[in-house]
Amino acid sequence: MQGFFGKTISPLGKASPKADIPAGVWLKCKGCEQTIAQSALDSNLQVCPVCGHHFPLTAGQRIALLSDEGSFQQLGEGLSSVDTLDFAHDNSYPRKLKETQAKTGLKDAVVCGCATLDGTPYALAVMDFRFFGASMGSVVGEEITRLTEEATRRHLPLVIVTASGGARMQEGALSLMQMAKTSGALMRHDEAGLPYIAILTHPTTGGVTASFASLGDVILAEPKALIGFAGPRVIKETTRSELPPGFQSAEFLLDHGLVDRVVPRAKLRAELAQLLVYLSPETTAGCTTAGRQA
């Protein structure tokens, strides 16, 4: 990840790239539709230098952004999903799992571990949308639960960075069970008087939104992130009503109380560092669980 925190480079022109330019050198921003250089994104935290559109980060990039260099120690990296339900009866799910693992270098859609940020220790889980749309299956639920329990045991603050299309359909009810399992672990973490900070990125939807993404003591979101349970089209067709402008955007949910702050990526590290210091067990020592909820 060399150069991840380098200086911002202005976009190198706005004209469409020539056909002989290698793929990945130029791309069109989904926010402003300007043609920008990949190098401009790489040196600007994957944020468009023209309009501020936030492109997705990999789990590795997110960990580099939110932790001290070399401090992250991964937990649970040996877990891998299995086709318990014999989905589709054609071995397609195990095959796609292996292909996605090879392509991303990940075992599944979340990376969990312990790290420090500006010297403050904490537990961190990061979801990676490249892996099956960061859908929540048994492994995702188990790893987040184990990390939460480890954070409780070590008396550490917990941070989960979400990005998910929801439950993993290939695992059926086993996927839906992870909502209750992760929520139960977070309840015990809270009862121990320990803070949990949720960082919602684009998109955070489905069962992830309906469980651990919405349970943070503090909930942060990146600008214009899509956050919701069902998609706007499904809701509109079901309710037969017009949805308000900006429905399910981070800014809309900030105005309506679900999100506490919308934080641009360039300020996210400093924001989280400040919250960890303020909410660390040492700072909150002596406060009861009831007092934290009041």
3D architecture notes:
The chain is α/β, with parallel strands linked by helices and 294 residues long. It has two domains: 1-55, no CATH class; 56-293, 2-enoyl-CoA Hydratase, Chain A, domain 1 (Alpha-Beta Complex). 36% of the residues lie in helices and 16% in strands. The protein contains eleven helices and nine strands. It has helices at 38-42, 59-66, 92-104, 138-154, 172-191, 206-209, 232-239, 250-255, 265-279, 281-284, 289-293; strands at residues 26-28, 35-37, 73-75, 110-117, 120-127, 158-164, 196-204, 218-221, 261-262. The strands form two sheets. The protein has a seven-stranded mixed sheet, sandwiched between helices. A two-stranded antiparallel ribbon has the order 1-2. Helix 4 (138-154) packs parallel to helix 5. The longest helix is centred in the middle third of the chain and has 20 residues, at 172-191. The chain is globular, with a radius of gyration of 20 Å. The chain starts with 25 loop residues before the first strand and ends with a helix. The model is unreliable at 1-19 and 285-294 (pLDDT under 50).
- Fraction in helix: 25-40%
CATH fold type of the largest domain: 2-enoyl-CoA Hydratase, Chain A, domain 1
The largest beta-sheet arranges its strands as: 3-4-5-6-7-8-9
Instruction: Label the overall shape.
Output: globular
Continuous helix count: 11
Ranges where pLDDT stays below 50 over 5 or more residues in a row are 1-19, 285-294
- Calculate the mean pLDDT score and round it: 89
Structural class: alpha/beta
CATH superfamily of the largest domain: 2-enoyl-CoA Hydratase, Chain A, domain 1
* Sequence of secondary-structure elements: EEHHEHEEHEHEHEHHEHHH
Q: Determine Rg (CA atoms, Å).
A: 20 Å
Distance N terminus to C terminus? 42 Å
CATH architecture of the largest domain: Alpha-Beta Complex
Family: Belongs to the AccD/PCCB family.
Pfam families: Carboxyl_trans (PF01039), Zn_ribbon_ACC (PF17848)
Protein name: Acetyl-coenzyme A carboxylase carboxyl transferase subunit beta
Pathway: Lipid metabolism; malonyl-CoA biosynthesis; malonyl-CoA from acetyl-CoA: step 1/1
